[in-house]
Amino acid sequence: MANEKNKKTGIRIVSMLLDHIIMTFGIAIIGCTLMGIGYLIVGNPSDSNLPEWLVVIPLFFGLTIFSIYFNKDAIKGKSPAKRILGFVVVNNKTGEIANPIRSVLRNVTLVFWPVEVIFSLFSPERRIGDYIAGTKVIPDDNNLKTELRVNQIIIALMIGVGFMFAILALQFGVKGISMLLW
């Protein structure tokens, strides 16, 4: 029994680490590519004749890209690592695949990623974010089906963008963000 729990915990930690690596490198590649394209189009932003308020556009795209990290489970309850390792995020009460909004809510606690990893050592099926969103991670037997709900994915992305903006506001303050924008 203890050996099975240790195995579950180990696989869960591997899943979290693999997700973190995949999502971080994926976001970095997308972000660097977009910055490179922007630099090719505009050149050095400080030498550009474009209005300063246009910095809002790349800021929004940057927040959206980082929002993808919080939405990694939004499509059919599976992040890249969960697809590889055969797991799925489900609603803890109904056992159905978690919808995109629950998925983003469970992942906002990833800003405390080390705490979530430590918590998962003791609770491999449910981390702190799972308790908040009412979800859990289970092995995927491919019997659960769900529709792709684009409207919920868009709402989940907007929640992620809002959360990223809140993180920026906490880090730089509202005055600091307005200085970034203007």
From TrEMBL:
Every copy of the RDD domain together lies at: 11-166
Identify its membrane topology class.
Multi-pass membrane protein
Give the InterPro entries listed for this entry. RDD
Task: Give the transmembrane region(s).
Answer: 21-41, 53-70, 153-174
| Record's protein name | RDD family protein
User: What's in the keyword line of the UniProt record?
Assistant: Membrane, Transmembrane, Transmembrane helix
The question of whether Transcription is a record keyword is answered with no
Q: Is the DNA damage keyword given for this protein?
A: no
Pfam families xref list: RDD
| The species this protein was found in | Salibacter halophilus
Its Gene Ontology cellular component terms are: membrane
Subcellular localization(s) per the UniProt record: Membrane
